[in-house]
Every structure is written in structure tokens, then in C-alpha cells.
Amino acid sequence: MPFTQADIDAAKKAAREEAAAEFSAKEQTLQQKLDAERRTRQSTEFAAAITAAIDAGRLTPAQAEGMCEFMLDLESADTAQFEFSAGNAKVKKTPLVWFQEFMAKLPKQVSMGAAAHDPASESGSADFTAPGGYAVNAERLDTHHKALDYQRAHPGTDYLVAVAAVNK
Q1: Residue 39 included in any domain
Q2: The domain containing residue 160 runs over which residues?
Q3: How far apart (Å, rounded) are the C-alpha atoms in residues 149 and 137?
Q4: Is residue 114 part of a domain?
Q5: Among candidates 60, 36, 52, which has minimal Cα distance to 100?
Q6: How far is it, in rounded angstroms, from Cα 57 to Cα 78?
Q7: Are 149 and 124 spatial neighbours (Cβ–Cβ below 8 Å)?
């Protein structure tokens, strides 16, 4: 069966279209995989930055909740740069860059480590303000102060032992 030039041209066109559709499908699949991998990498980077900010005390865990997803949305949003004034200069930044710089400039809000107790910083006396209708017993407050003085003079003495010693 002989083929005409029209049959050959139609077969070439069909083959080109099939190859183009196959290439487009593969390209789309690869692009989706690339986007997923990029999002995973960025998520890891953002989570590390957030954890570092928490460890440094610039963010609390409650403030950090949902922040990684927020930053991912800033990254995937329109990448247009916004122009704004910073002092006398005009600055252009993407929303994500601005937010990352903002986080880096946050002051320390909390100390995440154990606080050391320094007994030398205590004054050794207590002042009490009684609520309305109540009064502080001056004699017992004086006993309290004497017991604290006794404890300072005799380190390691229990408070109740000090109270008993000053009440003799």
C-alpha cells in the first residue's frame, strides 16, 4: 500500500504532537517534584531559623507556632519587591526578606535557661503590704527579721530552728 506525502506529513505531525505532549507531561511532573523538594528544603531552613530564635529568647514557642508555614507562604507568594523608606534611603525587599530581617532584630524576650539564685542579692528583709481590712503583726514581723539575721550569722541553719533560737 503506497503512502502519499499527505499521509507522511500527517504522521510526522501526529508524532511531533505526541512527543510534545509526553515531554510536557514529564516536565510538569519534574517541576512538581522540584517544587516539593524546594519547599521541603525551605521548610527545614525556616524551622532551623525559628528554633534558633526561640533558643536565643527572641521568640517564645507560642509566637513561633505556625511561623514556618507563614514564611513558606511568603516565599511562594508573588516575589515582587516592595519599596519603602528606611531613613533617608529607599529600600526594596521581598516580604520574606523583610520578615527574616525583622525576626533577626527582635530583642531577647525571655531567658530560656535556668536562673541562678544569688542569695547575696537579697536584702534580707521583707516588707509586707496588707490588703484593706488586715494588718501585719509587727511582733511577728520583727521575729521574722531576727530569724533571717540569725540565718545569715549561722549559714545552713533551717528557718524554723532560727525562729526557735530568736524566741528563747
Answers
A1: yes
A2: 126-166
A3: 19
A4: no
A5: 52
A6: 31
A7: yes
Quote the CA–CA distance of 73 and 59 in Å, as a whole number. Answer: 20
Helix (H) or strand (E) holding 93: strand 89-93
Tell me, yes or no, whether 113 lies in a domain. no
pLDDT digit of tens for each residue in the chain (168 aa)? 788 999 999 999 999 999 999 999 999 999 999 999 999 999 999 999 999 999 888 998 999 999 999 998 888 776 677 777 777 888 888 888 888 988 889 898 877 566 655 555 555 445 556 777 777 788 888 899 999 999 999 999 999 999 999 988
Amino acid type, 158: D
User: For residue 33, what are the CA distances in angstroms to 19, 23, 140?
Assistant: 21, 15, 75
CA distance 106 to 122: 31
- Has residue 62 been placed in a domain? yes
Closest CA to 36 of 72, 5, 88: 72
Helix (H) or strand (E) holding 28: helix 5-55
Q: Per the structure, how many domains does the chain have?
A: 2
Which residues, other chains included, contact 154 with Cβ-Cβ below 8 Å and sequence gap of 6+?
162
Cα distance between residue 120 and residue 122, in whole Å: 5
86: cell is 528606611
Which among 145, 49, 159, 139 is positioned nearest to 101, based on CA atoms? 49
